[in-house]
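Continuing from yesterday's entry. The apo prediction looked reasonable, so today I'm repeating it with flavin mononucleotide included to see how the binding region is handled. Same sequence as before; SMILES copied from the compound registry.
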Amino acid sequence: MDRLLWGCAHDGSQRVRSASKGDMMGTSGKEVFFDSDSLIVSKTNLKGHLTYMNDVFLDIAGYQAEELVGKPHNVIRHPDMPRCVFKLLWDEVQRGREVFAYVVNITKSGDYYWVIAHVTPSFGLDGSIVGYHSTRRVPNPKTVRDTIIPLYRELSAIETSHSSRKEGLEASYEKLLSILAEKDLGYDEFVAHLMLAA
Ligand SMILES: Cc1cc2nc3c(=O)[nH]c(=O)nc-3n(C[C@H](O)[C@H](O)[C@H](O)COP(=O)(O)O)c2cc1C
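Holo prediction written out below.
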């Protein structure tokens, strides 16, 4: 798997670069990259429908803003992402907490890009959640290759081994929790360790 170009800087005239063709977890398309000093930002309403995307988001995802505003955020969902990661993400932000997650997203043309995402609720003056916000950076390629891809492969395989989507999700979520319990880490601690080790 050739991900060695991950996060490399490039000349400012071309904000998105691509690397060699490779498979993420079994899907076609090639990996594309964004600058290590860039942030991919989006905002959603309470239902997870997009209300704002910055230019870096639009550039790498390959969309015009008009195509995305009002659309569910899963428009960039990569099919190889385990569903239990999104369950965890939504459980956390709906409880008013921030969450970090490694995510692979799909572009309009079928390519993919990895991010480390920080997702937070946005609060109104009365303290209620009024929407959600995500800021994404280039993740460490070694962390993605050595830890996240094997983990997500395992979780996705559990999900697809069940004929019922619900049962698959429950089983993969349980597996994720048991992996964390073996490490004696909460999910947030696990991700923090990975980010610090990078
Ligand atoms: C602020 C915010 C940012 C999100 N960013 C992404 C993202 O970058 N990629 C993604 O696939 N899902 C993202 N999600 C999660 C999606 O809403 C959705 O749960 C996910 O794509 C799975 O979709 P599905 O349940 O229809 O399979 C985000 C959600 C929120 C609230």
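Comparison notes:
- Residues 141-160 form the longest helix (20 residues).
- Helices lie at 55-61, 65-68, 83-94, 141-160, 165-183, 187-197.
Will overlay with the apo model tomorrow.
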